[in-house]
Amino acid sequence: MEAEKNPQQEAKNLYEWTKQGKWNMVVERYKINPNTHKVKITRLGDTALHIAVLNGEENIVEKLVRLIDEAAAKKPMEKRNDSAAKEQESASELKDQGSALESKEQASESAAKAEASASAAKEQAKGNDFAETPEGHPLKIANDRGDTPLHLAASIGNDRMCHCISQKHKDLVGARNKLAETPLFLAALHGKKDAFLCLHKICDPDEGSKYCRKNDGETILHCAIAGEYFGKYLSFIPY
């Protein structure tokens, strides 16, 4: 399609669809063309996922996040499969053609190693539910303020979207924007108790304390007092 060959047209289409509320079309494009997952469509550098979060489109956010995760999981597997295939092909050539430097037994050993390497790669690709999010992953894309989709979900206090975005990538909870604010910090800053509790539960105990502090030393306790949310956080502020 023309849009796939023209990133500017793709961005324009996504922007118009989000503006008009044609979210099913956005989901379809995310399904057909994984390259759209990283396309920024506004002057502030937001992706379609950013806009979906800001609009409170919970069902759409869940669909987009699932498609993003599925596409991201396929890429390393495809690379490993290609690499393993090349190794197997090379080993097969050594076995078929013979080599002046290697005997048939050595060629067979090389082929066996290639097969073992491919098998190990597949096992490693299974990962776990709380793997670190690879650099370049679409869920880590930030707008001009440095906010990821999770920052926005935390700011508006939508715990369902917070859980959806962070459940498989807990390191996103500690991502910092240009003001050194994490999603966990923003949930506290805006007095969003449910979102805060959701994200705090995902963190490891030692990480929660670190994510609750800005680089300048300001903590969620300062935010709670300044925003008169102290009563909300009194029972679980880790200080």
In short:
The protein has 239 residues and is mostly helical.
Task: Write a structural description.
The chain has 239 residues and is an all-alpha fold. It folds into three domains: 55 residues, no CATH class; 53 residues; 96 residues, Serine Threonine Protein Phosphatase 5, Tetratricopeptide repeat (Alpha Horseshoe). 62% of the residues lie in helices and 0% in strands. The chain contains 13 helices and no strands. The protein is globular and about 45 Å long. The C terminus is likely disordered. Keywords: ANK repeat.
First-last Cα distance: 55 Å
Strand content: under 5%
Structural class: mainly alpha
Which sequence of SSEs, written as H and E, runs from N to C?
HHHHHHHHHHHHH
If you consult CATH, what is the topology of the largest domain? Serine Threonine Protein Phosphatase 5, Tetratricopeptide repeat
Mean pLDDT: 77
The level 1 CATH classification of the largest domain is Mainly Alpha
Uncertain residue ranges: 118-129, 233-239
Instruction: Indicate the overall shape.
Output: globular
Task: Identify the CATH homologous superfamily of the largest domain.
Answer: Ankyrin repeat-containing domain
Radius of gyration over alpha carbons? 23 Å
Q: How many domain units?
A: 3
Helix content: 55-70%
How many beta-strand elements?
0
Corresponding CATH architecture of the largest domain: Alpha Horseshoe
What can be said about the biggest beta sheet?
A: none
> How many alpha or pi helices?
13
